[in-house]
Amino acid sequence: MVRAARFYEIGKSLKLEDVDIPxxxxxxxxxxxxxxxxxxxxxxxxDGVIASMxxxxxxxxIAGEVAEIGTNVKxxxxxxxxxxxxxxxxxxxxxxxxxxGMICENLFVRPGYGFSADGGYxxxxxxxxxxxxHLPDIPLDFAATLGCAxxxxxxxxxxxNKLDLMDDVAIYGVGGVGMYAxxxxxxxxxxxxxxxxxxxxxxxxxxxxxxxxxxASTNKIKDEIKKITNGRGVDxxxxxxxxxxxxxxxxxxxxxxxxxxxxxxxxxxxxxxxxVFVLKEFSLTGSLVGNKNELxxxxxxxxxxxxxxxxxxxxxxxxxxxxxxxxxxxxxxGRGCISIQ
Length: 341
Ligand SMILES: [Zn+2]
Ligand SMILES: [Zn+2]
Description:
Elements: E1 2-7, E2 15-19, E3 28-37, H1 40-47, E4 56-57, E5 61-69, E6 81-84, H2 94-97, E7 124-128, E8 132-134, H3 140-159, E9 168-172, H4 176-187, E10 191-196, H5 199-207, E11 212-215, H6 221-228, E12 234-239, H7 244-253, E13 254-262, H8 274-279, E14 283-286, H9 292-304, E15 311-315, H10 320-328, E16 335-339
Parallel strand pairs: 9-10, 9-12, 10-11, 12-13, 13-14, 15-16
Antiparallel strand pairs: 1-2, 1-4, 3-5, 3-7, 3-16, 5-6, 6-8
Helix pairs in contact: 3-4, 3-9, 6-7
The structure holds zinc ion (2 copies).
């Protein structure tokens, strides 16, 4: 028997249970989990904002060591380190064929590790070998966080929004995804303004390369942005919060023709003034997680040293519910990670 933290019911803590080691199918790999990053989506699942399929082991930022391989698996060997791309696009629908696996028409009827299939808050996890990415010698807690925070940031910057050199980009929200997004925007040559409420998080954003930081609680976001951009406004606003407040600030801080990209997952209706979108030709788009090839790119970036880890806190698996409470209350700066020996 091995340990797993399982989700049963909306509004309830995860249950720590002893479960059987998963049996490996012909196309599967059994991972001995070493690190599982903690994402705000876990809180959304527990609160019922994001649908899942309980009972299920949560944790979708998963890195570990290959412990066993199915008979058909040829490209992984025991003892090798790997990170999981947690969603399973079908590869055959129109969206997949167009290279947009993240909006695969069949995404939600296929395994999503840590959502609809057992994920990483456990000692072992079974995954389809196709969902695995080889890892070079980088810390496994860092690697785990690339699996969601990393690719979500990369997809928003790289796919939805090929930034131009010297674009002015605002990152609204300096949680884990925002911390990677600001680094990636800097690597693309943009000038980056990070917006958040927590001074400690804003300090971290600065240390990771943000050119300017704005504390949202001062309520002077538009004025500060106009000052920084000589009255012009930012070219791109990437919104990791998504609320009436963030949309209001975004639409008053964009330059004409600017882009607003929504990444934060909220199911609360927001109000916008459509006129401003027409008169200033703003565009508004959503961006969802990222593709496996983007995870492969990120692993290379991490190995090169250009992308820095945002993991600041490690917790034991048995401490998961306390750790998730800290996350819920905004007490984790960067990313928290469950570390398993
Ligand atoms: Zn996530
Ligand atoms: Zn598909």
